[in-house]
């Protein structure tokens, strides 16, 4: 009888536990501030940049309202973040600004850069 009870406990509780685990895994993939799911290449940026409207910053400036807006960092030869300037920055920031504090090797794959830039276009107040 004891074994039957144990068996019942296991069959009833184990599936519940594993459900819990998968939802925790999914949780780790979400942006902690918005809970919005973000494309994989964009996760390269989140250790150093917030992607939401907030006054807080991480190591790097907030990336909200950056696309189609003025450059806020010093030492660049251009004034605005467009598809072209973002594309070359993300490819190799050190080529654009040799002493930049953005210690990041760059994204060499043009398709991944496009995913990142398309996502950055959505991070803005204006539609
Ligand atoms: C290791 C940390 C780090 C990572 C990873 C990183 N950045 Fe940065 N980023 C910075 C820092 C620090 C600055 C400020 C650079 C400076 O002042 O020279 C910066 C600046 C920027 C700027 C200029 C913003 C402005 O307000 O003018 C953009 C755009 C940017 N990063 C985009 C990205 C994108 C997109 C990614 C992901 C592909 C990324 N960064 C990954 C640290 C990082």
Please tell me about this protein's structure.
Mean pLDDT is 81; it is low at 8-29. This protein folds into two domains: 1-29; 31-121, Cytochrome c-like domain (Cytochrome Bc1 Complex, Chain D, domain 2), CATH 1.10.760. It has helices at 2-28, 83-91, 93-96, 110-121. By secondary structure, the protein is an all-alpha fold. Helix content is 41%, strand content 0%. It starts with a helix and ends in a 6-residue tail after the last helix. Heme C (HEC) is lined by residues 44-45, 47-49, 59-61, 63, 66, 71-73, 81, 89-90, 97, 100-104, 107, 116.
In brief:
The protein has 127 residues and is mostly helical.
Query: Which oligomeric state applies?
Result: single chain
Bound molecules: heme C
CATH superfamily of the largest domain: Cytochrome c-like domain
Determine the mean pLDDT.
Answer: 81
* Gap between N and C termini: 65 Å
H/E element sequence: HHHH
Proper CATH architecture of the largest domain: Orthogonal Bundle
Q: Main β-sheet: number of strands, strand sense, barrel status?
A: none
Return the CATH class of the largest domain: Mainly Alpha
By DSSP, the count of extended strands is 0
